Amino acid sequence: MPNRLHKLTTLAPLAATVLALSGMTATTTFGYAGSAGGPNTFTSLQAQAEEARDTDPLWRTVYQDYTAPVPHRQAVLRLDGRTAKRPAILQRGDTARKEIALTFDDGPHPGYTDQLLDVLHACHVPATFFVVGEMAERYPDLVRDEIAAGNTVGNHTYHHISLIKVNAADDAAEIAACGDVLQQITGKRPYLFRPPGGQSDLFSLDAAEAQGYTTVLWTDDPGDYASPGIDAIVKRTLHCARPGGILLLHDGIGQTIEALPTIVDALRAKGFTFVTVDQMLREQKSSRSLPSPTSHYSTAIL
Asked: N or C: which end of the chain has fewer CB within 10 A?
């Protein structure tokens, strides 16, 4: 099992390729809406993950699966040859359809998620929530509320960890632990995954694909995590909106909640309709077959 340093040094060019799919660079700094709802920056969560192995029964059980001897680990991952293929990645929807998918990362957050759901309900707009496993475990009713309102819930790792900064076992365990939490809450296994910050490499993409996930990136990011102001969020979003777009927004940001009605009204006035990511994925799969792979990092759905 490669260690973190080996993983980063050997896969740096490949990681850069994946980041390029979403217009990012390896030096991009991403925000995280913490439990208090304020913006924060990525921190190294390796120590936190190690501590959690001793205190969190779910995390300890999952991590043991992914640090087990290779035959057992392969059985857990159900590695049946799929990892020899490129991982399934959704970066955008069908550009022939004037549709856009609103996605919200990093929740759920009490006092914010419920307000966000109220706004979406009032605007008659579905959305896709990529939730953090430990947050979902703390606030399962908010996840159930998201589902009950007709939204889609996806996996955003258990600790909101940067997957290119940890070892391969942590990659797989982070994804699996969040999936276990969501299955316990909703009764269904999620199949959409978004890596925190969009940061992925060979190991994390393969781990997600082996567990049955499509990795979802985005076309547009107004940087709402930094709370740049309501007007800035609105202007950046409307400037970038395009058919088949996937908009990255964040749960836990008050300015995003306030900006949302204006964004929805303006996009509707331009003729856009709103869909969930899974609806976008179904439409693409039904409208055409997947393109032939050109590399391990080719997007499965363009």
From this structure: N
